[in-house]
Amino acid sequence: MAAIARGSITSTTWGSVNGQEIKKFTLRNEACQEVEVITYGAAVTNIRTPDRKGNIADVVLGFDNIEGYLSSNNPYFGATVGRVANRIGNATFVVDGQRYNVSKNTGENSLHGGIRGWSFKVWDATIQDNSVVMTLVSPDGDEGYPGSVTAIASFQLTNDGELRIEMKAQSKKATPINLTNHGYFNLAGHATNAAELYKHVITMNADRWTVTDSESIPTGEIRSVANSIMDLRNPTKLGNVIDKVPGGGYDSNFCLPESCNDGKVNFVAKVVHPSSRRRLEVYSNQPGVQLYTTNSAPENGIVGKDGAKYFRHAAFCLETQNYPDAVNHKNFPNSVLRSGDTYNHVVVYKFGVEN
């Protein structure tokens, strides 16, 4: 094969789903970093980045083939999640006086867009300049949601290690929208599990969090993180706190300071793996971020890339987002997209090496 120039985007066929071709795109930069995305679920499948010695590892969980992503064992690895990420209580909401009932897929509630949300769809894709741009049309009534929505997810890898994901949506009718990318990260390498995850040091730019009930549905209370296990504003080793969190790990929406609710891209979090010195910084224009520490992996694990088994606490997620169930809480930021407006969500995952 001919050598591929650095700073390039290439594509290949990666199987099919119901007769629809799945494409995989590989983005490369001049810092020996690579990102791979597929058109099924607009999912990020691989992120390869060097450590302090130049050793390259894949730092996101995923599968080797499309069959893995189609399996019931797939916990949204790397996917673009919508039409509404996170949960909607009782799978119902009211917009402009009209009640809508959406599909229930976690008890009586709706999670991550329903039974066949956008993470289960095949997106169209093109290469535009230095980005992979994926498009999806969600019809009126899809999973019970009102309005035909056109969504765009674009992926760009810069030479300074930024994976920039921009998610946009326009609707023909008022509808709640809350997209996120559901990457599962372990900066020691995707196969290293809890032994290395516990060594990660996390800092979060979050002064409050949204309290939830036993089914992870927000009660409406927004509580200060001060003097609690939710206070991650100073560098915190995950292994020192993860087992002290009710439920056996983090799975909560953290709120950025109100000064960050300005529509601009703000600092969200920083995570460092001390021995490899790999660093991840997250920036976003969203008001919240879900920190999830893979608490619900099955006891016998999930077989992922290279035959690796992923177990409980194998990785962390930082899912930038609006607050969960915002459509049902007037004190949460607005989540209803109206005809003529554009939903715009930018998240930057910046990979590098800590000095």
UniProtKB/TrEMBL annotation:
InterPro entries attached to this UniProt entry: Ald1_epimerase_CS, Aldose_1-epimerase, Aldose_1/G6P_1-epimerase, Gal_mutarotase_sf_dom, Galactose_mutarotase-like, GH-type_carb-bd
Give UniProt keywords alphabetically. Answer: Carbohydrate metabolism, Cytoplasm, Isomerase, Phosphoprotein
Biological process (GO), any one: galactose catabolic process via UDP-galactose, Leloir pathway
Name of the molecule in the record = Aldose 1-epimerase
Q: Does the keyword Kinase apply?
A: no
Q: Which GO terms describe its cellular component?
A: cytoplasm
User: Which cell locations does it reside in?
Assistant: Cytoplasm
**Domain of life, per the record?**
Eukaryota
- Which parts of the sequence bind beta-D-galactose? 86-87, 182-184, 251
Pfam families reported for this sequence: Aldose_epim (PF01263)
Q: What class of enzyme is it?
A: isomerase
Q: Note the PROSITE patterns from the entry.
A: ALDOSE_1_EPIMERASE (PS00545)
NCBIfam families in the record, alphabetically? PRK11055.1
**Upper classification of the organism:** Eukaryota, Metazoa, Ecdysozoa, Arthropoda, Hexapoda
Q: What is its EC number?
A: 5.1.3.3
Q: Which GO terms describe its molecular function?
A: aldose 1-epimerase activity; carbohydrate binding
